[in-house]
Amino acid sequence: MRKVGILGGTFDPPHFGHLLIANEVLSTLSLDEIWFMPNQEPPHKKKSSAIKNEDRFSMLELAIEGNGQFRIETIEWQRQGPSYTYETMRLLKEQHSDIQFYFIIGGDMVEYLSKWHKIDELVNLVQFVGVERPSYHCRSPYPILYVDIPAMDISSSMIRKRLKVGRTIRYLVPDSVISYIKENHLYET
């Protein structure tokens, strides 16, 4: 059975923190692949910006370029309304019965798991993988594998704020993503 990690998020924009998490989980758990799964409308937060799905996809494609074990899964873009992980993973399991899925979440989401839609059913579909994030303590009554990653406190919202005030994002996102942002005038005020 293949082992695939799922890293969901808005990726608005994708950054080195996302790539570091994916690579560390891939390596530590000896997974076959990591699927980056951009979401349409996460139920736990409001839409972060007016960036089109096509732009988020293109930036994510550029960010993972060159790593044959990383790919993009767009199943959540094919559905309307809030993206509930239970529904998504149920569909993925139906489509890929030969895959054991490992759903990667940060410390902030570990603390929030009890509020997830159909969490008791979801833990039977996937193995959760928790990664430490600064200022969060990964504690949960649910079965979670923990992977230590080097501390890198980067967020997409921080990158958007920096861009809004004209600050550099060099070394926070891949150069190809920076070029795409500039060429397409994304995140301008």
What would your notes on this structure say?
The chain is an alpha/beta fold. It has seven helices and six strands, in the order βαβαβαβααββαα. The longest helix is centred in the first third of the chain and has 13 residues, at 16-28. The model has no long low-confidence stretch (mean pLDDT 89).
Which helices and strands, and how do they pair?
Layout: E1 2-9, H1 16-28, E2 33-38, H2 53-64, E3 70-72, H3 85-95, E4 99-106, H4 107-110, H5 119-122, E5 127-131, E6 144-147, H6 156-164, H7 175-183
Parallel strand pairs: 1-2, 1-4, 2-3, 4-5, 5-6
Helix pairs in contact: 2-7
Quick summary:
The protein has 189 residues and is an alpha/beta fold. It contains 7 helices and 6 strands, in the order βαβαβαβααββαα. The mean pLDDT is 89.
Mean pLDDT: 89
Please state the oligomeric state of the protein chains shown.
single chain
* CATH fold category name: Rossmann fold
Q: What is the topology, as strand order, of the major beta sheet?
A: 3-2-1-4-5-6
The residue ranges in which pLDDT falls below 50 over 5 or more consecutive positions are none
Count up the helices: 7
Shape: globular
Write down the Rg: 16 Å
Please describe the biggest sheet, giving its number of strands, its sense, and whether it closes into a barrel: 6 strands, parallel
Determine the structural class based on helices, strands and strand pairing: alpha/beta
CATH architecture: 3-Layer(aba) Sandwich
CATH top level is Alpha Beta
The H/E string reads EHEHEHEHHEEHH
Q: Give the tally of structural domains.
A: 1
What is the assigned CATH homologous superfamily?
Answer: HUPs
Give the strand tally. Answer: 6
The percent of residues in helical segments reads: 25-40%
